[in-house]
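haha ok so turns out i had the wrong file open the whole time. this is the CORRECT one, sorry everyone. sequence first:
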Amino acid sequence: MPAFTFVTCDVFTDKRFGGNQLAVFPDATAIDSALYQPIAREFNFSETTFVLPPTDKRHSRRVRIFTPGGELQFAGHPTVGTACVLASIGAIPLTGAETKIILEEGVGPVPVTIRARNGTPDFAELTVAKLPEFKPGPTADDLARALSLEPGDVLSDEFFPESASCGTPFMMVPVRNRAALAKSRVKIDLYEQVLNGFITNEVFLFCREPELPGSHFRARMYAPTLGVSEDPATGSAAAGFAGYIAKRDKRSDGTLKWRVEQGFEMGRPSILDLQVDKKAGAVTSVRVGGNTVLVTRGELTI
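then structure:
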């Protein structure tokens, strides 16, 4: 039986067994694409990526991204992790302290900068292919009920429920504090009912009460209909979140930076670094970056 090499890694962390797990098939050319979904279900990580030759020779690779429940057109931790894996195994040569590549994803070409420390690539930062887009969300009270929270736990002032997307939409749900964030739980029947008819039923909860020095926000992400009950680190949601925050930030020019904690409630602490460029009040670029640690290498026989 043919055997295909894979690498697993933890993304948005500098320590093994933290961050978000990812399985990467660095050369999926000979794998029947009909098997991508079953393979992703077998690993049962938030995402698994399959790396293919680019359709445009100016780009580095084409990447297809699968959750246990379906294919994504764009996702952050698979982009960051795949770039670090390819550089770590020598599939993408380093060009110095920073190596710039372009990965083709369903959303379009995604620029990625890989950074090496002592010759070892351990950090990557993506630049979104699509600038943030926003759509209305459910009421704060409806979301509170669906997430096992009390009235008033979900905010509806300057920060209010709204979807944000840089290629993959997420419902941004601001909560009162870290205690409310910690006690949130999906009530699946109410959850499906409340989010029915909106652009997304993937929810990114956040509060302005982080735990660590240097952090600005704490977050959790639920996507039960994709087979992901909770995600330890969600780069695509963080990209939309950066746009959501930047829209409310009174600074009209320059580079804005934030650090987000995610996955702490799951026992997989993750750190996501966000940057937004603004000019004359408009968002002109969004970047999401973080560390990656390689964990295992193996072969899958089919």
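The chain is about 20% helix and 40% strand.
again sry for the mixup
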